[in-house]
Amino acid sequence: PSAAPPSVAPPAEAAAAPVVPSAAPPSATPSSAVPVAARPSAGAREAFVEAWAIRAAAEAAGLRLADGVYANAAAALNAGKHLVLTGARGSGKTTLALAIARAAAQAGHAKGATVVTGAPAHPLVTDAAARGRWVIADELDQADLDAALKPLSTLLAGVPVTVDGQEAAPANGWRIVATWNGSPPRGEAVLRRFAAIDVARPPIDELKALVRQDDPTAQEAVETLLALGLPVGAGVLKEAADHIEARQAAVPTDASTLADEAVAAYISPLIDL
User: Element (H or E) spanning 207, and its range?
Assistant: First the structure.
């Protein structure tokens, strides 16, 4: 198979910020960066966005997830769905959303991405859709779903809408990729055009390798964190493990203190313990 296509990184924008042109594409990703097992077979039907391309973009950003997450997202896009990425805080949902947009740009289906937080402003979404810029709706769980998405239901179906007396049509292949902390509510009609993709933690062996420490006391503290089974993503646990490493190197203490400090600093602000 040929090398992976160029990686086009869509610029992140503040909530309700004006849409700006997409960045110029950097050099091509070397084929060695894409695991052979993740590349499409010679006889495979071409997908809308390839799972291996999403994985390559995600890993280039430092994100590692189970292969099934990438395959699940690619399959939903191939079915014509918008995406809502669900999972614990710190699981990499936003990074994955941006990786999906990059892979879509590589495949010629996106002209960059516009990032908003919470409820996306309707004129911004309409403009982005017409220009072929995918919308990353980060932390959509913070928004009122009916207010945020119901007025966009026609646009989400790929049907032109009239805005300020002018017709605006979404570009072919345009998508919204939203992130949602936890699980989205059931029975919401406005979400029927979205496929929910669970951004699960990597397998336990990979997670342990990610947070492993050389210092025995720091390693004991990390194992204590993992044993708690807290509902946070791998990214949060990696930050906590790095904190434990630096704290122990500066002023050594016992494993229990290290674990307690890491929980207070990185986990308690996110979830109720």
Answer: helix 204-211
Per-residue pLDDT tens over the stretch 40-69: 554 456 789 999 999 999 999 988 898 999
Whether 172 and 248 share a structural domain: no
Could you tell me the residue range of the domain that residue 152 belongs to?
31-198
Torsion of CA 137, 138, 139, 144, to 10 degrees: -20
Could you report the per-residue pLDDT of 140-163, keeping only the tens digit for each?
A: 999 988 888 888 888 999 998 876
* Distances, alpha carbon 63 to alpha carbons 92, 179, 202, in Å: 7, 16, 10
pTM: 0.75
Residues 52 and 95 in one domain: yes
β-bridge mates for residue 178, sequence order: 84, 137
Q: Compute the radius of gyration of the chain from its Cα atoms.
A: 20
What are the tokens at 254?
A: 């016992």
Token reading at 248: 């122990």
Inter-residue contact 40 to 52 (CB < 8 Å): yes
